[in-house]
Each structure stands twice: as C-alpha cells, then as structure tokens.
Specification:
Elements (H helix, E strand, L loop, with lengths): L1 E2 L7 E5 L8 H14 L4 E5 L5 H8 L8 E3 L10 H4 L2 E2 L4 E5 L6 H8 L4 E6 L3 H16 L10 E6 L6 H13 L3 E5 L3 H8 L13 H15 L1 H10 L10 H7 L6
Parallel strand pairs: 2-6, 2-7, 3-4, 3-6, 7-8, 8-9
Antiparallel strand pairs: 1-5
Bound molecules: adenosine-5'-diphosphate and magnesium ion.
C-alpha cells in the first residue's frame, strides 16, 4: 500500500546541485542500490524532468533487489501533489534526485524533513564555484542549520588535489561541512548505470576502489540519528548568523 511514511522514521536523503552532469543521478542510483542490496526498503524520487533515475530503474532487472520509483517531475491534473509524491508506507530510505534549476520554493520543498543533503561537485573551478553558490542557498534560502550536520559534499570524477579543490575544502572547512568521499573518474559508474545497476551490484573485484568510496558515503548517511543527537548538544560548530554578503564573498575563489 502506498502511504506517506512517518516523518521521524524515514531516512530522506536529498542529492542536489543545479549544475548538470556533476553526478546527482549517479549518486542517487548507487546509494539506492546499496540500501536495497542491504535488504532495506528503498525508494527513489526523481524531480528532474530528464528522468535519468526513472530510466535507470526501468533498465533494472527484476532479479536485482527491488527499488520503488516515484516520477515527481510528472505533474498530474488527476491527483493531488501529495498523492503523486506518496511512497510505500514501510519505506526506510528515500533518495531524492533533483533538477538543474530550482526555485527558492522548490529548494525548500525538496529539503524539508531531510536527514541528509549531499552535494556532488566536479573539480573544475566553474563547478566548484556553482557548488559553493548551491551551498550558500541551502544555508540562506532553505535555512539548513549547520549544527544539524546534515550537509556534506562528494568530490566526483576527481583525480588529483587541484588548487580549486583545495579552495573548496577551505570554504567548506570554514563552514564545518565535510567532504565525505572522493569518487574517481571510472567507467564502472557508466557501465553499471547502463544496466540499471549500482556499483554494489557489479563483480566486487572490478569495482573495489569505487565500492570503498560508496561505502564511506553510506557510513556517513547511516550515522544520521547520532548526528542529530550530537547536534542538539554540540557547541563545536559556531553558528553565528551568516549574512548573505559574507557567505557569497567566501564563494569568490580565485580559480586555479
Ligand atoms: N565518477 C564518475 N566516473 C565516470 N563517469 C561518471 C562519474 N560520475 C558520473 N559519471 C557520468 O557522467 C554523466 C553525468 O552524471 P549524472 O549522474 O547523470 O549527473 P547529473 O545527474 O548531476 O546531471 C553520466 O553519464 C554518468 O554516467
Ligand atoms: Mg541527473
């Protein structure tokens, strides 16, 4: 039966960054595949009209662990929005894929009740700049509280420690936002996606470095109840009010 799960028990993970091609759908599908393989009830919700995540699910073989899909980008006149967005009542993990452009209201709707928000970033100066703007919007528009420790970055298709990546690390460090994994540029991601699989569904010997990084992401995501508890008592992250001006100034890196 399709119902909206109890808010408190649903692990809702939102992947966003308005920059196309940075790896949002790759992360959504890989994280969903890992949770499904572990035997937890998993759903993906695709807000991107390109529908990459829904297309991936269509290619997924019935032999693989099941993942429920919701095409949130399709708007029906026959049903209410909340009816369209309902997920199976026993869903434990919900992965939300987001589109290239988001209004302020979309950003708030998407991130509401999330347990974690992941921002994938490619290593080019332009991409890093766009990601910093996205993080600034999350803090200022969606009002994500840094003390909740729900926000993290994944460096994607990254080969070396470039100057722009170091700049991003400094920017994130000053905000207390971690880079939790660095994914290499690998055809494993492309090939697995072609077959509706995640890296975890591939032969382990071929995907060892990739699976290690996905494992790091899953470990960080799994710790959300503890992060939430710590955040209530923590005083380590300074949460002095961020002015838009000061935050946007910090995103003005000089590129490598
Ligand atoms: N780490 C990676 N190595 C190789 N190819 C990747 C990697 N991450 C993503 N890709 C490929 O890059 C393209 C864009 O990734 P995608 O996840 O669709 O980005 P987005 O959803 O942000 O637009 C896809 O063809 C995907 O297979
Ligand atoms: Mg996508």
């Amino acid at each position: 039966m399709l119902l909206t799960p109890q808010k408190g028990s649903l692990n809702k993970i939102v992947i966003l960054n308005p920059k196309g091609g940075c790896g949002k759908s790759t992360l959504v599908t890989n994280i969903a595949a890992s949770y499904a393989r572990r035997g937890t009830i998993t759903a993906v919700m695709d807000y991107d009209s390109q529908g990459s995540t829904m297309a991936w699910l269509d290619r997924r073989s019935a032999d693989l662990p099941k993942i429920h899909g919701i095409a949130a980008f399709k708007k029906s006149m026959q049903a209410t929005r909340s009816w369209q967005l309902r997920v199976p009542g026993d869903t434990e993990n919900l992965l939300v894929d987001s589109p290239a452009s988001l209004t302020r209201d979309d950003l708030r709707e998407l991130t509401r009740d999330s347990t974690s928000i992941l921002v994938p970033v490619l290593p080019s100066p332009m991409d890093i700049h766009a990601a910093s703007r996205c993080i600034a919007d999350l803090l200022l528009v969606a009002k994500v509280d840094r003390r909740d420790r729900k926000l993290a970055v994944i460096a994607n298709r990254t080969r070396k420690n470039t100057k722009s990546l170091r700049n991003l690390m400094r920017f994130l460090d000053s905000l207390g936002i971690p880079i939790i994994a660095v994914l290499r540029d690998s055809q494993n991601f492309v090939r697995s996606a072609e077959h509706g699989k995640g890296i975890c569904d591939m032969q382990p010997s071929r995907v060892k470095p990739d699976i290690e990084q996905i494992g790091k992401i899953i470990n960080w995501l799994d710790a959300w109840p503890q992060r939430r508890r710590v955040s209530i008592s923590s005083t380590t992250i300074k949460n002095a009010p961020l002015s838009e001006h000061s935050l946007l100034q910090r995103t003005q890196f000089r590129s490598a």
